[in-house]
Fold each of these.
Amino acid sequence: AGNTGTANANAGNAANSNATAAKPAAAAPTKESLMTMEKSAWEAWKNRDAKWTEENASEKYVGFGASGRMDKTASVKSYTEQKCDVKSYSLSGDQMQMVGPDVAILTYNGDQDGVCDGKKIAASVNSTSIYAREGDKWKAVFYGETPVIDPKAPPKPAAAKKEVPKADETKPDAATEALLAVEKKTWEAWKNKDAKALEEVLAKDFAFVTGTGRMDHAATLKSWTTENKCDVKSYWVGDAKSVSLSKDVSMMTFKGGGEGTCEGQPINTEWYVGVYMKDGEVWRPAFGMGIPMS
């Protein structure tokens, strides 16, 4: 009789353990299933309805708005704080990239017609959404976009957005420091137009998104080396924050800029997002995107 309570407790613990173990994990995504979620997100944005973000964004979510980097709370708040009138939108050219079994990256083009805070929004943007498996659901962990640029008809040069690098108010944690070290190797190789160094750093399925579109590994190497029309005297990366998305995949958002020119224009300071996958004991960039500062 003295062991009855222990026996019952053990039985209860076993039942709870079995119930937890029996909870199904989210099925592997298809591009179509995630694009269905994405279209719902755009519809919610058009209708200024924060419910989609409240229910489908992870607590790890990061996005960018007029005020810069936003977490989930700030993103939800922006639905009521930002005044937008969106008449229409359409999404096309979608591609999905898996980074391990638990992280999916969607890239696509969004055409839109609308005004936000009295200013006409970009008519066409290259967009990236990142989703991560969290238990039995796929949750949004990132959204960013950059206006489409026609390489044959680039926009007139705007005033360069410069920002003097300053020491972070709080020292990045060890995980972020490790990713920053990898990112600096990538920037150094880009500065030096060093294809061999890039090959040694980047994941084999690396992709990068800019205003001109999505580049795969081979196109990125060409763009950053043999077709690189930049004269970079120095560069900096900082203001970084990272989050673990799975055992072997992490995401980091940060600012990057430099002294020098690209195609005759000053190098702008921009926001960036990077997704990194662990290869043995080494972190490798699997995906990146540059996002102009508002």
Note: The chain has seven helices and 14 strands.
Amino acid sequence: LLFAAIMVVSMVAAGVGGLAGSAVAQDNATLVVNDDFDDPDESTNFSSIQDAVDEAVENDSIDTIKVRAGSYDSVMVNVDGLTLEGPNADTPGSSSDRGDEATITADSDSPVVFKADNVEVSGFEIRDGENKIDNLVYLDGPVDETATLENNIVQGADRTNPNEGTGAYLADAGDENVEVTISNNLFKNNFAAVGGTEKTDINVTGNTFEGNTEGIGLGPGYKFVDSVDSIDALIEANAFDGSNTYAVGDYTGDLSPTKYTASGGVLVQSGESISSTIDSIGSDRTIVLDGEFGQ
């Protein structure tokens, strides 16, 4: 009888250990995604970011998904309070110290879609596939509190239509008091790097813009935050190199857009009216001409 009792206790202990080491342990707050499962010590491996997010839908104790370097398909983040951390989560997008990237691409959908509250995405390379997606990062709502995009590389949304080809597009913020933070990213080779029209407090700071037609597009509902309370302050709070056509496009006025350069001047291109630009902005700004103009 004593021997039988010991056997029963041993079997129960083994069963408990097996559950604790399963891929979906209920007391784990973090899941790990690796496209080739090269982390044998992790007990919560997934090969797809979306599969890990779907698991977080079912297990509300999960608040973080760590993604190893590799190549991944698009993801819709529909879990409140979820953080997606790529391998460069603590390194700005323009830094030479970044290591191997976790690259998210898509050919038919936006690579990253925010569809929940208090979501943070950091440390990824997010880029267009072969079919030229309209928006690489899409804030699709409803978002009523916060959304954060930080320390990423967002590149390749290069389209000729000004309503398409946006690196990070704030389409539906939900509540008009939502706070969106877009910081320390590298936006590269997009038609428009950051754009949106919702009544949103958007804190766009510390980003680097390279090779974009338009750096930041300010739609009719754009709201400045206290620390960056004007177009000049917005330009100053970010870095625009000479490869961008213009730094900020202001769609709230008559010109739609007024094209502000990185030096604070206003760009007028071929086919646009110099006199209308002066009438709209006054005489305090330098007019930068690009193209051929009649007398």
Note: The first strand starts at residue 30 and ends at 33.
Amino acid sequence: CDEVKSLRLPKVLGQKESVAKIIRDKCSVVRYGDGEFNLMFGRAIGFQEYTPEIAARLTEVLQSDDPSILVGIPDRFGSLADVDAQSRAYWRTFMAKNRTQIYKYLNFEQTYADACFTAHAIEPDNENAPKDEAEIEAYYNEIRKIWDGRDITIIRGEGTEIFQHDIYDNAKSVNYIYGPKAHAFRDYDRLLAEAKAQPKDRLMIVVLGPTATVLAYDLAKAGYQALDIGHLGKLMTGSSVKKPSLSANFLLLRDRLHTFDTNAVKTYDLLCHRAKRSFNRVNKRQEVLILRFS
């Protein structure tokens, strides 16, 4: 619409282009969603308390122009035609409240990644979204190329993995560093020190909410390739099916409700209703739902 066309919009790569750049350039990735923005602007979220320090660090990282670090922001500043009605309502409200503040920290000459590349979308109200299950599988297997044949270290909250999955089964080796499930920034110094004890040729994958954004940045500055990828593993279940599952995505939304206001609870309830309806009347192919909130 004319209103959207008149807005000044940041440059954001598409999801596939974002993945391709990570593979091609072996760049590090830090990602921002509404949770990170809320913390920057002084608002606590459920699994991370607000502190001036984390707000300052998130502000610093967002303004990075280091070519080896790809900054991801949600591609939600312009048209919202590719998301369902509930998501559209949420993001319109969020941007109306926060756009001016966010824009203070964006470089409109810089190209950002789509922070939602970890949740390639098929949404029930989106007629333009891909419906081909093979395309979903191909997309997530493309992401797996990032760590193919590499030694990787996964830094995540202890006890946060619900699903047995093998999305890293193509890595050469995998080890783990564990942090708190909540308020991980309290343990930041220890996490950074343990991570920096790893060899520089290991790929560092960080799954720690907003703390991951800062940690991936500091590791990249220390010479590692580091990826803040969110709960990607919960989008891909089973050993033979490298694609998202409906149940995994509801757990993903449940785990990330801390990044939303009360609209998130309404969204979760609506999605649960749709899931029950979907299981009753459509086949397994049509039951795939990817959330763009991660």
Note: Confidence is low (pLDDT under 50) at residues 121-128, 237-294.
